[in-house]
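Thread: quick sanity check before group meeting

JM: Hey all, I'm pulling together slides for Thursday and realized we never actually wrote out the predicted structure for the chain we discussed last week. Dropping the sequence here so it's in one place. If anyone has concerns about the input, flag it before I start.
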Amino acid sequence: MKKTVFLLVAMLGLAGWARAQEATAPGNPVIQSLKAVHDIPVAHLMATAEMLDDALYAYRPTEEVRTAGQILAHVADAQFFFCSAARGEANPNDRNFEESALTKEEIIEALKAGFAYCDAVYAQMTDAEGARMRPLMGQEMAASAILAFNTAHNYEHYGNLVTYLRMNRIVPPSSR
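JM (edit): ok, ran it. Output follows.
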C-alpha cells in the first residue's frame, strides 16, 4: 500500500513538473521577456487610471505640464504609435486621444484598446521578427527595440503619475 501511494504521488509530481516545463518553455524568449517587462507598467497605469477620481483626471501640478488625464490619454495614443511601428504597419488609431478623450471612461477605454493592440502585436511577433529593422522617428530600429522604447515610455509617464498621486497623498499602485 505504501509503495502504491508513493508511486502515485511520484507520478503526479512528475506530471505536474512536466506540465510546468511545458507552460514555461520559451518559443520566443526575447519577445516573451520584453512582454513580461511591458506588462508591469501597463498594470500600474491601468490601476492608476481606474483609481483616480474625476477631479484628479483634471489635476496638474503646474500649468506647463499635462493633466493626469492627458498623460493617460497620451499613453493610450503611444501604444498604437509604437506597436504599429514595431509591427511595420500604419497606425490603426485615427483618433488623437490626448486631444479628444475628455472623460475618465473615455480614457480608460482608450487605454484598454491601446494595451490590447500591443498585446496582439506581442502575441504575433517572433524573436526573428523582433530583429527586423523598422522606421521610427527618422531612424531605423529593431522591432524589439521599438517595443522596449514603448515600455520605457510607459514607465516614464507612470513616474509622472506617481508624483501626481504623491502630491495628492495617494499611495501609487506600485507601492501597495
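AS: nice. The longest helix spans residues 143-167. The first strand starts at residue 133 and ends at 136.
JM: adding both to the slides.
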